[in-house]
Structure formats: C-alpha cells, structure tokens
Amino acid sequence: MPFSDFPLSPKLLASIADAGFAEPLPIQVRVVPALLEGRDVIVCSQTGSGKTAAFLIPIIEGLLTAPKARRIHPRALVLVPTRELAVQVNGHFEMLAAHTGLKSVAVFGGVDHGPQERALQDGVALVVATPGRLLEQLDRGAIKLRDVAFFVIDEADRLFDAGFQPEVRRVVDAVPERRQTMLFSATMPGEMSRFAHSIVTEPEIVKLGLVAPPSQIKESFWPVPEPQKLDLLMRLLAEEKGLEKVIVFVRQRARARMLAPELARLTNLPTAELHADLSQAERLDTIGKFRSGEVRLLVATDVASRGLDIEELTHVVNVDVPDTPDDYVHRVGRTGRVDRSGVAITLVSPRELALAASLEEFLRRKIPWQRLAGFPYAPEEETGAAKQLIPGKRRRRAAQPLDQRETSSTKKESPFTRSGKLKKKHTDADFEEKPRRGGRKRAEKKIKGKKLPHQRRK
Questions:
Q1: What is the pLDDT of residue 162?
Q2: Domain hosting residue 158, numbered range
Q3: Per-residue DSSP letter, 455
Q4: What is the pTM of this model?
Q5: Residue 403 to residue 391: CA distance in whole angstroms
Q6: Is residue 421 part of a domain?
Q7: 122 in Cβ contact with 68 (< 8 Å)
Q8: Using an 8 Å Cβ cutoff, are 208 and 26 in contact?
C-alpha cells in the first residue's frame, strides 16, 4: 500500500515523497493508523524496523491541525537515551516536515545551553531530548511541558538500562495527563512492561516477531584465542567482500583508543574512534564523516550500538562478545537496516564461550561457528602486539579443576605477621620475647612499690 492510502495532508505526503519513502514498512502499517485515531501505543519491535517514521508521521499530521506552539511550550516531546539518537530523530523530523513549516530542536547535554534555549524561546512544535538535559532546562524555566499533546518514549529499554528510570518518571509527571503516549522498545522485560502499562490508556499493543537481529543479517561466531583476535580480524577484513562501511565494537574505551590506529595502519582504511571520552562536538563530527563516507571504519563502544542509523553499513564486527543479549541485538542491528543485507562477525575467546552460549539461548537458535582455513591458531598465550591491546593487562586466571587446586594445608604460609614479627610457632623455644614498653613500665612500677618484709609497719 502507498502512503497516500493514509489520511495524510498533501504537505506531509510531499515531504514523505521527497524523503524517498515509497511504501510503508510493516511496523508503519500497524502503528500509523492507530496513532492517527488518537490511540496510545506500546510497540516492541526489533531495531532497524522503521519505528522513527512510524511515530513522527502521525505526530506531524496532528501538529498541522493543533494550535501553534507558544514560546517555550512545545506541543510534542520525544524522550531518547542518547545524544546521537536525539540528533537522528530531530533530523528525521526536519526531513518529514520540510513542507509543513513546523520547527523542532534537539535538547541534549555536553553542549552549551544557549542555542537550545534560543530555539525554545522562538517556539518549536517538537522537542527531542535526553532526560538529564531536559530536566535541567525544566528547572531553569527554559521549557514548559504543560502544552505537550504527543509524548514519545523511544528506546525505553535503553533508558532503563542506563539508569534513567527516576528521570523518566519525573518527566511523565510533568507532562499533562490528557495526552497521546507512545512507547517503543526493542525488548520488553517485566519491569518495563509494568511501567509501560502504567503511563498509557487502553493502548494498541504491537509486537513484530521475535526481538532478534533481522533475518537478512548473516551472523557468525569465530573462536580464537584472545591474543590472536587482532590478527584474525585483519585476515577477515582482508578476505571479506563488499566492505563499504564497517563498525568494530569493543567493550572498553581504552581498547577503542588503542585499536583504532592499529586498524588504520594495517587496513589503510580511513578510521576513527567513537566512545564516551570524546566531546559531543567530536562525536557528531565523527558520525558525520562516517555517514558521508569520509570515514569507512569506525571503532566504537556501545555508544554507537543504539540510535545510530547509517546507510550502506555493510559489516559489524564484535571484537569482544557483548555482556548481554540486548547489547548484541542492538550492535548487530546497526547493519541490515530496512531490509538491506548485512554481515555480523563476533570473535569469541575461550573465556567468552559462556557469553556466546547465552546469546544462542536468548535467540533460541544456533549461530554458525566458523574457523578460517590456513590461519595459524595458537594456544592461549599473550605475546606481541596483541598483548598491548588488552587495556591494563587485567586478565583473570582460568578456573582450575577441584582435584588440581592447592589445599590450605599445602599452601606456603608466611612465618611473619603483618607487623613484620616472627609468629610464635616459628620462634626459638629458649628465646623469651621482651615485654612491650607499656607492660615493662607497669611491671617495674609494681616491683618498685612493693615493700620488703622488714620494711612493713608492724
């Protein structure tokens, strides 16, 4: 069905056509009609399914018929977990509202308050905000939420995982009770489900399939000793075909800083790093270069795992197995967007086998395990450059079988106490330790004050 089958205004349809949207995606077919009817929705859908347009199109249609927004009183509010997602959603709104004259602003931390406050003073129809900066602007009196008629919580599971639950509840209390509420999440644990039903009224519940990476993504696990991950990564990147844009995910910021120059040197690809240690301006600049193709290989932490929509992103590589299945789903979901094909490679060391097994159990399916023919797999030893790529060289010893563990009776015990003195069982039996200073004084005083028999008064 075309978008013209929805009851949308000509201006909005013109903007949709200019954006290159030909036909609605399945999530848009399910969600847009319910929102146009004014109903609340709870949507649980896999990442990259087109949910941003699913809630922005009905909001824009509603804003066209609503009273014009007053200064510092927006009519619509979208709450997101990260600055990158705030910028992305705001960009989508500007694209879909190009012919409508509606204005929006992204409100997030890490930058000066001034430009955001000036935009709010001019009057905007929609605000896309992170919870922390939104509450700061609310406390400063730079924004009022009394006129909010459309309220969206996007990536709700990520907001809860990041510890924003108190801030989200405070925002919910600040918006009017009479509003249209939309909650979108890739996963729906029990606590999230209870919270979602507490803020909506008779919602339309939409669930699109299993919360897992899209089927068009080719996933694979590659077992390899930890010190050889960099070598195997280089071989895989060299032999992989169709490399357009690649994100290499790591667990730690320090590892991203060390790995980025190594990959740039070994692959000769324009490479950049993306993590929380960068300023907001640096992060936006890096994302802009990655989108334009000036940077083709991005080494990133989970900062880039959600809310980053990059066209022609062909490959995702997990150098470290994600700690949770949700992180895996969102990392892998950066590729294969909107029915495009993609490749997801995960390097698994022996110490990460349990994490890999938990991922397969969560997804309820097996992920193919592969080994690279001709690669000189070595035992688990840390040598060469690979040793330097482990931040701080913090490594846990592998657990030993019970029959091989050293018992307390066989352990070597120090003959000295913490204060540096020999323990009693290690001292010479004929050696008598002198009393401490205080005890010696008390003994001398006791002897000195004692009277001999001929000195006593009869």
A1: 74
A2: 3-208
A3: G
A4: 0.58
A5: 33
A6: no
A7: no
A8: yes
